[in-house]
Amino acid sequence: MKTLCLFPLELRRLFQSRLTWLIVGLTVLSPAVGLILYKPATASTMLSMYLANPAIAGGVVGGILFGLLSVFESDRATRSRVDVLMDAAVSPLTMALVRLLALLAASVVTVAVTMLVWLPISAGLIGSVFGGVDYILAYLLLMGLSLPMSILAAASAYQFTRRVDLSLVLFAAFSALSLTVWADDWQLCWLNPCVWALSDDFSNFRIFRSVAWMRLTWLVALAGVWTVSYLCIRQYGKGVFGSLTRNVRRVYRPIIALALLVCSGTAYAAQPLVDSSNPDQMAMTFYEIPYVEGVVCTGRSAQVFPDTSVGSVTGTASYQFQNTSDQEQNVAFGINPGYTISNVQANGVNVPFSVSDYQEYNEAMLEVTIPAVEQVELTMEYSGFPQESYNMSTMQGSTEISSEYLCLENSVLSPRLMNVLPGENGYPTTIEITLPEVMTAIPFNSSEAEVIAENEDGTKTWRYEANSAGGILYAGDYVREDIEAGGMTIEFYYGRKHQAVMESAGAVDAVKSVVDYCTEHYGLLSFGIPTPPRSPSAWWENSLTTLTCIKRKSRTALPLSAS
Length: 563
What we know:
Oligomer: single chain
Helix content: 40-55%
Number of strands: 20
Radius of gyration: 29 Å
Low-confidence stretches: 529-563
Distance between the termini: 75 Å
């Protein structure tokens, strides 16, 4: 009760300090550093340059400033030589908690003011692709959460040491670790999160989820450290260990500290965003698996259901095998490490399967035992939140799944065959995927997806044919322009957010002019991406020419399909 009564008084006193207003003012101005000096997001998208970089820079500079403020506020009574009187009037434990709450409240006010000040500036710099959701999430996650973490870290250092110089050294070392040694570890860089790009056209929820997980993990960890330091606050003239012994008498205090530290450690170890792939980029274990003798794949299909609200995938995959070996065989599949496999059946009967702990190139190996019969239809269900490769953890975002964009590659789309040869017609494949009605499915091959059903829940089911053991599928909120140029029809796709820009820039006319010019001077297009072979002698049979340009940094797909 005393804490609640003292909190408004301490907050008022805090905002009467000139140092506080200096720190607040510098923090509000700190995003400008991201426009001039500190630019961790290397992509050239508008959101990367004018939103991600300012927000991250604001978090770094603001975090350091509020860490300094926390140390000096913690030492205020000692510096003024009234600490004995303060301890006599108010318990040091109560005062530490009140001071922490006041600093946290000041950081919340500072972030809110910063967002209001930079809102028109960011909107003007970013232009037509500015989005309110991206702006709010960027400043809350990339900047906002760094201030309370810095307050907790700096206050903990002072409560452990009770010396300004040592506290500043410890806080500086902790911040320097994040900016240097830990900068390439997305879970450890607590002050400067790993954000290499923000997309202009499509959502950035995958990156924001990654930052949120890291920030909340550290926030809980630092709260646990602060609670431990809280138990070490000196009172009754005792030292650190004597005070600790006395303060742990109320058993709920160490229990809270232990629970916070255990939760943070669990969140660190059980993070669902990045796999445990072998860091050796030369490893070829999965590619060295020998093919099963006497077994070929005569066809496969998959029904895929992305949940665009949470970024997960569920699906059912079916494979047709011809087994002429007269014995059981182990068929290997590559699956995304974030998926769970269930209900594996061969010809309607449950069969044994196992998933390896070893992971390589963003895949784990699923082994299924098929029976010793000639015709086998293997079905399985898979679901989960697709994980990204450990080796690319500082550049997350490729497996974005949202109502504006998704990219499902190979084992993320469906389990990929690893050790079964194709039949005489290759790997005939049928993929069906259910998407929000605003999205357009674009397979990365010569086929074209068609809508086969419009569902009552506002989704559409797309189907396309392919011929491969894996496959890549893009989908997004695209605008399509059909361009007649160079004797062919070009299907030109671009993100809807860029529609006004594309129209004002005359992008369609530019594409037509380029194709006409190249056709006139160099002849008709003579290359493309062929369909997989139906037989060794028919590789080019019935192939369609497809040119696909993927702007990876903004994840804006601009497919150009020529037929």
